[in-house]
Each structure stands twice: as C-alpha cells, then as structure tokens.
Design a protein that fits this description.
mainly alpha; 0% strand; 85 residues
Length: 85
C-alpha cells in the first residue's frame, strides 16, 4: 500500500468533518420535526399518517445522527492526537 501524505490525510479529515456536521444537523432537524409533529398530533388527533411520519422521523434521525456523532468524536480525537492542519 502506498504511503499517504499528510496533506491527503488533512483533506480527508476535513471532508469527513463536513459530512458529520451535515449529518448532525439533519439528525437533529429530524428529531425536531418529530417533536413538532408529536405536539401537532397531541393538540389535534393522532391519525395514522401522522404517527407514521413521527416514527419515520425518529428512526431516520437516529440512523443519521448516531454515526455522525461517533465520527465527529473520532475526528476531534484524531486532531488532538495528530494535528495535521
């Protein structure tokens, strides 16, 4: 395997950091949407499509947010250990 230059590693870290920021924003936005939908259903009546939308927002939010948080912590720890840029 060919050696990877420090510039390539720094670029890869920056790209992963950007993706994690987008993932965290999307995950938290989906959680916010689920909360708004829940309180909308609470104020009116819980219909089946509304409940389905709440569940989908929670599930997709969890699937997006969990890896984004883990990779965010990994990037921060790596930058503390070996700052390239």
């Amino acid at each position: 395997m060919a050696p990877v230059s420090p510039g390539d590693l720094a670029a890869r870290r920056r790209r992963i950091a950007k993706v994690t920021v987008i993932g965290q924003r999307l995950g938290y936005l989906l959680y916010l949407a689920a909360a708004v939908l829940f309180f909308t259903g609470f104020a009116t009546s819980f219909r089946s499509p509304l409940v389905t939308a709440i569940i989908v927002c929670l599930l997709v939010g969890a699937l997006v947010l969990a890896p984004a948080i883990i990779f965010s912590h990994a990037i921060r720890a790596t930058n503390r250990e070996d700052p390239l840029a």
